[in-house]
Amino acid sequence: MTIRENIKNYKASAMPPKPPIVLTAQVACCENTSKDVLWHIAKNVPELRKWVVANPVADAKMLEYISQQGGP
Asked: In angstroms, how far is CA 30 from the centroid of its own chain?
């Protein structure tokens, strides 16, 4: 198959991908935020850890991880 045939047969998806989540204090403490996002914040955004601690969805493992990293 040539490049032209590939281009002709290419069909783009109807919907563009979702934009990335902007990590804010509101996202970190919102009970609707997924645990995956909270773990990402806990591991990679130390200035938002205090808001993760305030989130009722944060489980014991997540809180223990944050405390072992020096706390919020």
From this structure: 13
